[in-house]
């Protein structure tokens, strides 16, 4: 202990120690936010982890530097004020021991293991001895506060803080000339503020971890929802594309193959009796095969109708379709095409493709089922819509409401495909027919209505 009789400036040193101890503790509050050994700044598992936060790592380094600066300043002050005293070697040895113990803190971790608790006890004892010998070393109290708060359970940590505070007050009062309220009240106030700051930091760190965990959960839920939505959209797109391809194939390749089959069967029946007629059937089947080949190649290219790809638009494609159907029927069926009105703007590609497919499917039904001798295609351009009528003078049938499939339509895919095409464009398909009175099919597509995505 430093006795007042041993030094002429002992009283001044005691008073200065009390003031500087409070000031140092206050500065320790700011520095301790970075964490000391065993504090949040150096704990890889605690709040404010230095390993995961670059700012916390730099603040932890700043805290360590501040501790060693305070320790060095205390030792320097003692050597300047009390050179050559008997206790000087002890002060130097204990200062070095305190520094070494402080450096061992991060190596031992932050969990309250027996080895870690032993280290803390030795660190506190060495500091107490230094404070008894030279009160200037009280400046290092706040890092010890935070070390105890970080390692010990709450009650034990508060008890340690109280013990260190009482020890600091008692040591400084023994060196004072008289009673000084600042020496009695300032250290407990600083200790209370330091403890409150640490507890607040710890709670904030816990809240931040909980918030980060909730944010990760929300992000995971969002990503999972987006993946599910994308998968659903892909499935719906795949189903829609399959439906569209099935209608395309039915209206082109399937109808062409059906016609080829009928022609080849007719050629087989007349091969011996009428070779010329059989050859005509084969040539007609060959022409249909060529058209089917063009359609197939067009499917591979962009799935657009081959007639439209040749240029001329929907009107030219319908005229070509009518001429081809008439030629293939060899006089048994005559197909006429008529266009009314002039479009204000070119029809969208989807509208042209759908109407051409509807015309192909309808004429295929006429050729296979109606027994008609004449059929007509009428394309009418109106201001806000386009209408395609396909009529024939065949045997007709009893038209049924949409969605009802009778015995006659069980095998057919044509009418449902036509209805689906028109519905996708936001239009309507109507059928007027009666037994013995022919059939009129009308497809009406609006030009200003958004297409139905279904």
Automatic annotation (TrEMBL):
| Pfam families recorded | HATPase_c (PF02518), HisKA_3 (PF07730)
UniProt xrefs under CDD domains = HATPase_UhpB-NarQ-NarX-like
Question: What Gene3D superfamilies does this protein map onto?
Answer: 1.20.5.1930, Histidine kinase-like ATPase, C-terminal domain
Q: Which reaction does it catalyse?
A: ATP + protein L-histidine = ADP + protein N-phospho-L-histidine
The record's listing under InterPro entries reads: HATPase_C_sf, HATPase_dom, His_kinase_dom, Sensor_HK_TwoCompSys, Sig_transdc_His_kin-like_C, Sig_transdc_His_kin_sub3_dim/P, Sig_transdc_His_kinase_ChrS
Record-listed E.C. numbers: 2.7.13.3
Sorted alphabetically, the keyword list is: 4Fe-4S, Cytoplasm, Iron, Iron-sulfur, Kinase, Membrane, Metal-binding, Transferase, Transmembrane, Transmembrane helix, Two-component regulatory system
**SUPFAM superfamilies reported in the protein's UniProt record:** ATPase domain of HSP90 chaperone/DNA topoisomerase II/histidine kinase
Q: What is this protein called?
A: Oxygen sensor histidine kinase NreB
Organism source for this protein? Streptomyces rubiginosohelvolus
